[in-house]
Amino acid sequence: MSETVPTSWLVYCRPGFESDALAELQHHAALQGIACESTHGEGWVSLTRVDGEAVNELHRQAAFKKLIFARQSLAALPALTLSRDDRLTAILEQVKASRWSFEEIWHETPDTNDGKALAGLIKALTRPLASMLKKRGALKRSAGGRRLHIFWTDGDQVQLAMSFPGNRSELVNGIRRLRFPSRAPSRSTLKLEEAWHEFIPREEWDLRLAPHMQAADLGAAPGGWTWQLVQRGMYVYAIDNGPMDTPLMKTGQIDHLKEDGFTWEPPQRLDWLVCDIVDKPVRVLAMVERWLVRKWCKEAIFNLKLPMKKRWDEVTRCLTALDETLAKAGVHANVSCRHLYHDREEVTVHVRIKD
């Protein structure tokens, strides 16, 4: 049997953002000079090399941490159509032909109602398939941390893919589900919490999200993001003409200033700037650039609200402009951007000044 190689780069994304995820993949393929054909469905997209060669190098060069719209990034084998009378044999045969070995198996689906409806079928197949793959030596205790992803798009449609340590999401379906804290003033609070999980290693939280730090929340009302800062023990300048949540204000950790977040200036350098203002991305970016160039904060997390079309183009323009502004000002910083699960028509940007 000839070896089957992964010729496709498969990523999961939020339904409705397939064209943006695909544009991002095509950008990285063009950088590598690799010709690909595209395929997509609701909540996922893929590129397949037209020369039939393995996609591993492209997948490795376009590291997951660099991607914005991808929830997960995988090197995938050709999609399979299964017999509804025997779904396991075709999967076992393709694993054998690939000569893959791995330490665990994740069954995943698109983030859609149709995907969720496959849960019963997947549960019934999970243990028998794992037992057979273990017996054949593909599922083993030590395999370099590799993980087999079985991506179900229908009851008889599946694609096998591989992920590698350090170049993948460690979350099933690439989704971080957080419990809404009942005392928080708004559901937007989850955006900032997820951003911290995404951009700050958990072991650094006590250092970088420490009590007694000072932060500014621009466009704070009613206080969803301010609530997260207060929970970390920070003192917060909440800048917004609107009213703040009354119980939150009673913590004594907030100075609510009814001023314009676009023009307000801090009294001294702060540890954090956060901003979830709904406005044109170019206007929000100009405001944040002013903070960063003048080093009014050490770290910043802010959202950029995107247009309905060509969101990848808009994000690229914004991030390029930010890089150019910081370089011109001689400000050295690490910049990251991600379309988070709790985001909707926006992306979240994190900047950490090195100086």
Automatic annotation (TrEMBL):
It holds the Pfam family RlmM_FDX. Residues 86-163 form the Ribosomal RNA large subunit methyltransferase M THUMP-like domain. Its EC number is 2.1.1.186. Keywords: Cytoplasm, Methyltransferase, rRNA processing, S-adenosyl-L-methionine, Transferase. InterPro entries: RlmM_FDX, RlmM_THUMP-like, RNA_MeTrfase_FtsJ_dom, rRNA_MeTrfase_M, SAM-dependent_MTases_sf. HAMAP family: 23SrRNA_methyltr_M. Monomer. Belongs to the class I-like SAM-binding methyltransferase superfamily. RNA methyltransferase RlmE family. RlmM subfamily. This is Ribosomal RNA large subunit methyltransferase M.
